[in-house]
Every structure is written in structure tokens, then in C-alpha cells.
Amino acid sequence: MFSAWDRRDRPPEEGTAAGLQGFAVDKTFLSSLKGILLETELALTFIIFICFTASISAYMAAALLEFFITLAFLFLYATQYYQRFDRLNWPCLDFLRCVSAVIIFLVVSFAAVTSREGAAIAAFVFGIILVSVFVYDAFKIYQTEIVPRATQGDQQ
User: Fold this and answer.
1) What b/e string do you get for 17-45 counting C-beta neighbours within 10 Å, with b at 16 or more?
2) Segment holding 42, helix H or strand E
3) Could you tell me the maximum CA-CA distance found in the chain, to the nearest angstrom?
4) Which of 6, 49, 117, 126 has its CA 20 to 30 A from that of 65?
5) What is the DSSP letter of 55?
6) How buried is residue 78: exposed, middle or buried, by Cβ count under 10 Å (0-12/13-18/19+)?
7) First CA to last CA across the chain, in angstroms?
């Protein structure tokens, strides 16, 4: 009758601690080019979110959304948890994430600079820097992941 309570009160078995190893952070990924790009995107997105919060709060939702999406991709790649979802085309999803972020931040950055406030101008400058980082990330994804897969499909 109280089996759920009994399980909660008992100390965990030795095998359950091994289940937490699936979320171990791969430190070599964090120091790789892709890890550094994701960390840079995350930091710049957070800075832009702070700038939009200080000046034009109508645009902060776009920066916050991209922050959480980039954080999710960083978590999935750093823990290599994305390998459990083998049906998803991760390079294509990552490429689309970068392209959508470029479009969103270009539009929001140029719309924000029209307000002529100090924080909005800072958000514009950081937005242009972030767009260049996202473009570089999209280019590297296309160059290393998408083009080799297309040429392999042609040979078969």
C-alpha cells in the first residue's frame, strides 16, 4: 500500500547513480569550435536580452526565446544527449536555428535602433555582432555537415 513511500525513503541502489552519467558534461566539446560558438551565442543573446529589457521591452521576447533555444542546444550537445534522438536531423535543426536567429536578430536590431536610446543602440551593436556569429555558425554547419551528406547521397 505504501510502496511509493517505501521507495522514496530507501537509499538509492548502486545502479541508479550510473543513470545520472547520461548528463555528464563533455568538457572537450565545450572547448571545441562548436562549443565556443554556442557559448558566444548564448552570452551575446543574454546581453541583448538585458539591453532590450532596459530600453524596449517589446523586443525582449525574441532575445529570450533565442537564449533558451541556444541553451537547449548547448545542453544537448555538451551532454551528448542528442544522440538518443536519432530520428532527428541535428545538423539541419542547428542550421535552421542559426538561420532563424539571423532573420530575427536582424529585424529586431534594426527596429530597436530607431528608438535612439542608449541601451537600444547597444542592443543593435551586439545584435549585429551576434548575427555575424550566427552566420559563421551556419556556414560551418553547412560546410562540415550538410554538404558531405549530400555528396554521400549522390554516390549511393
Assistant:
1) eeeeeeeeeeeebeeeebbebbebbbebb
2) helix 33-54
3) 66
4) 117
5) S
6) buried
7) 59
Residues 6 or more apart from 50 whose CB is under 8 A from it?
Answer: none
How many helices (H) and strands (E) the chain has is answered by 8, 0
pTM: 0.77
What is the rounded CA–CA span in Å between residue 12 and residue 9? 9
Per residue of the chain (156 residues), give pLDDT as tens.
455 544 444 444 444 444 455 577 778 888 889 899 999 999 999 999 998 888 887 888 888 999 999 999 999 988 888 888 888 888 889 999 999 999 999 999 998 888 888 888 898 999 999 999 999 999 999 998 877 766 766 666
